[in-house]
Backbone:
């Protein structure tokens, strides 16, 4: 085990401006951007807060096409060139489909041709989860996760509302055929936060972060052909916080628990193989501190968890820091710690390919140290990797083969007034 992973992998980054966006402040903001590297296209696709979706040449970063997505374009995935009623010759001549999930009035999922940017189909999740009752970001329908395989697309959408002390979530998980036909839906009154497909495409894991109503379980595993419930699991903790992320590895599912701030590895039917303390409640200077395990990635018997910001049990404000905040820790199949390192700032989401992780690090609002603004990457087995420093904060990332892409957003800390960084796409090669 090494507390500070050796660094040996360098990337040469090139960049292109994405225009203007309101700078982030000291505390981390909601997801405002997305980036994607399709597996079979020499393309990098960006999604922006104003709804602009752009496909660029992966080498030159010159724009090939631009599309206007309804609402904020905050999630991107791609479908292989296949579809209902298409023979093999048609599939061979058809480009990949770029799928974009949005946040906004309609909570739209739309598919775009990877070569031209032309829209192929559109689905408005607000028809299922309902329309916003207040015109603010947090209340608008939000497509929080997308997963694809050869058979189609899986997506999770949610909407929040509050009436006095009553808080409610409305959510739908979807299975789409490649042509946009809805194969099945799974609806609950809880808030989904993550999806993952198994390698064979037979099971879909759904992580629920907030459970305030009748749905009272953090993890749901569905049969992908029918949407039928296979099994469920829950950390069994009090309150509405449940799961932060899920990742399937063979017959196992790794889960980061917001309920008890631990990491779990589950077997068939949800049997718990082991659990590890990640950022559990800890007493420091008379305060009870904790941090949420926000992300997990499992691959070939190795599981990495990433923790987020420090919080105090008595309230959000504290001058202390949990010893395991902003940390990545990797464990073997038996639950033994193999390596750990600091990520030093808030991580919106992981990008993974094979045994490689890319970690876009945003602000550390308690420390406000600009040197934390980096794209970091790690080898899951050894912990080896490196980082690229940015002027602004890294808020989204993608990795495919030896290419890594990230979105930089500007930031202005509340207590110094200096604007750092820009709204830009950064692309580098790890080979």
Residues:
């Amino acid at each position: 085990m090494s507390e500070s992973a050796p660094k040996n992998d360098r990337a040469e980054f090139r960049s292109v401006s994405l225009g203007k966006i309101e700078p982030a402040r000291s505390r981390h903001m909601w997801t405002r951007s997305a980036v994607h590297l399709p597996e079979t296209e020499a393309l990098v696709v960006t999604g922006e807060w104003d709804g602009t979706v752009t496909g660029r040449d992966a080498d030159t970063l010159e724009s090939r096409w631009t599309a206007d997505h309804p609402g904020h374009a905050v999630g991107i995935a791609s479908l292989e060139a296949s579809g209902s009623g298409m023979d093999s010759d048609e599939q061979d001549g058809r480009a990949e489909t770029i799928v974009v999930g949005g946040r906004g009035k309609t909570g739209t999922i739309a598919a775009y041709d990877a070569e031209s940017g032309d829209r192929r189909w559109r689905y408005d999740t607000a028809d299922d989860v309902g329309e916003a009752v207040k015109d603010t970001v947090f209340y608008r329908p939000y497509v929080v996760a997308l997963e694809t395989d050869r058979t189609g697309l899986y997506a999770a959408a949610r909407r929040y509302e509050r009436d006095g002390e009553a808080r409610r979530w409305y959510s739908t998980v979807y299975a789409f055929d490649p042509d946009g036909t809805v194969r099945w839906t799974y609806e609950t009154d809880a808030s989904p936060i993550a999806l993952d497909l198994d390698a064979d495409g037979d099971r879909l894991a759904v992580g629920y972060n907030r459970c305030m109503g009748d749905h009272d379980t953090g993890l749901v595993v569905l049969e992908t052909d029918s949407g039928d419930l296979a099994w469920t699991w829950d950390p069994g903790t009090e309150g509405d916080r449940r799961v932060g992320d899920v990742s399937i590895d063979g017959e196992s599912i790794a889960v980061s628990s917001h309920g008890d701030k631990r990491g779990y590895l589950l077997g068939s039917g949800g049997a718990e193989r082991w659990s590890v303390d990640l950022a559990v409640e800890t007493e420091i200077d008379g305060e009870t501190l904790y941090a949420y395990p926000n992300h997990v990635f499992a691959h070939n018997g190795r599981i990495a968890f990433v923790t987020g910001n420090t919080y105090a049990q008595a309230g959000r404000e504290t001058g202390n820091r949990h010893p395991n905040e902003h940390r990545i820790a990797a464990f073997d199949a038996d639950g033994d710690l193999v390596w750990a390192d600091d990520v030093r700032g808030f991580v919106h989401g992981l990008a993974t390919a094979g045994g490689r992780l890319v970690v876009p690090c945003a602000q550390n609002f308690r420390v406000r140290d600009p040197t934390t603004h980096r794209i970091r990457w790690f080898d899951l087995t050894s912990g080896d990797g490196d980082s690229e420093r940015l002027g602004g904060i890294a808020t989204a990332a993608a990795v495919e083969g030896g290419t890594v892409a990230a979105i930089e957003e500007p930031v202005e800390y509340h207590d110094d007034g200096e604007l750092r960084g820009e709204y830009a796409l950064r692309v580098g090669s790890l080979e």
